[in-house]
Amino acid sequence: xxxxxxxxxxxVARLVLFAVSSGLLFGVDLGSIGGxxxxxxxxxxxxxxxxxxxxxxxxxxxxxxxxxxGAWMAAYxxxxxxxxxxxxxxxxxxxxxxxRNFPEALLxxxxxxxGVGATSVASPCYLSEMSSASIRGxxxxxxxxxxxxxxxxxxxxxxxxxxxxxxxxxxxxSLWRYEVGLVPVxxxxxxxxxxxxxxxxxxxxxxxxxxxxxxxxxSLRSMKTLEIEGAKERVLDIKAWxxxxxxASNALARSASWSETSVDxxxxxxxxxxxxxxxxxxxxxxxxxxxxxxxxxxKRSKEDRPxxxxxxxGIFVDVFQVALGAPEVPAGARRGLxxxxxxxxxxxxxxxxxxxxxxxxxxxDVGIVSLATQNxxxxxxxxxxxxxxxxxxxxxxxxxxxxxxxxxxxxxALGLALVSVGSAYRQSELxxxxxxxxxxxxxxxWGIGYWVVVTEVTAAGGPRYGAAMxxxxxxxxxxxxxxxxxxxxSVTKVGPWALMGxxxxxxxxxxFAFGPLPExxxxxxxxxxxxxxxxxxxxxxxxxxxxxxxxxxxxxxDDE
Length: 560
Known about the structure:
Blueprint: H1 9-44, H2 48-76, H3 78-97, H4 102-130, H5 133-168, H6 175-186, H7 189-195, H8 202-207, H9 213-225, H10 231-243, H11 248-254, H12 264-275, H13 282-288, H14 308-324, H15 333-349, H16 354-357, H17 359-365, H18 371-395, H19 401-424, H20 428-457, H21 462-494, H22 500-514, H23 525-532, H24 538-559
């Protein structure tokens, strides 16, 4: 077992590699546009409006990607959604790198965004469902580390390619085609490799059983791959039963200890297996019922089978029901949706992505004209993102969600104020310091904390509404990011002091964290749902018991 995780080392290693490879791909695709924008603008003759449209196009495509990603997750599973998302990650950069005009470049960017949106829903959900509560935050932090490293890698590649281009004094600005096309395509390779080594989420499979013996067995084998306690024993018992020629007495003897498990997932699997009529050991039921006919496994009709269209429609219906507080919606789901959407809007409205995407342009506006220098300084900003994630990784499980996001919002406001002052007085050094400090603090707090918090607060929706709530929140994340990226250049043209508006948003981030956001650190997803519903968690119950004991001890002491 990996120290303090309750999970085998090799399973934790696989999950870390998945987090790193998926985040790397995300970061490279987001970061590649910054270095290639200047060359693209020159060669394709883009207007400022078209520049904004292409930069924001990734977020625009991600709006639809996260919605379809939520539908794919529900219909096909978390892992298969990641596999499907690889298509846009290859097709989009390819089209962008080969584009000859604005419409082709915009289409390529929209396709890239579709993949970004789908993975941004599927990857954190997969990590959360596959990991224990003790390492959930650290795994999501690894995902953010990889995004930051991908962004840094894209910026570094742009700097090195531009420097080599300048030294060779080659003609033509077509270097951008490698930056936005080839580099992102190569970044898909690690994710393709690691997906072969991981199973589907057993939590999702358990939700799809519907008395289906094949899905029950697949979910059990998935848990066995993850080395969840009790899964291997059940797989071996089923194999032994089959080898023994369906001898019910033999199977009954081997499965006598099944009910003694303390593992939640295994307990759920046992319950589903019994509710389905023990389809993997049907003669057990016949033996216990003294010769009653072997139960048949009901099969789902074609109308009941999931389809993306039906699920996508269901997402909108589910979100609408949660927003209205329909009677069938779990208690706390409406509150969880409001918190998730609020965090999503604030996460991007502070220009957290735009500062990175337009770093070269902002440096150009204060007098840095050399492309190589712009890329070098932008690489420093991307490096601060990487350092911020490392800092966040060290504190995510040590600091509560409220102080993490609250203090982070306040410090982000200070960093954005420096950005505004540096732009106003055309001080490139102050601008660079401001951008770096803002990005470092944002990523260490909100960058990591957002994905953790959204996963935790949407757990209040339960198996049915939780995925729809996550899809809605992530869609709002990209809507907010799209609007911010699409208007960022226009805001800077109003004047450098207009950037103070983003500092005001950062102040609202602090208010949100210290105000309505609940504290969920150290809680399981089930406990998070209970907290949002207004109930007590195991931790609070234990605290109450300790308080009762202390009160009793004090009363006894007073009596004496």
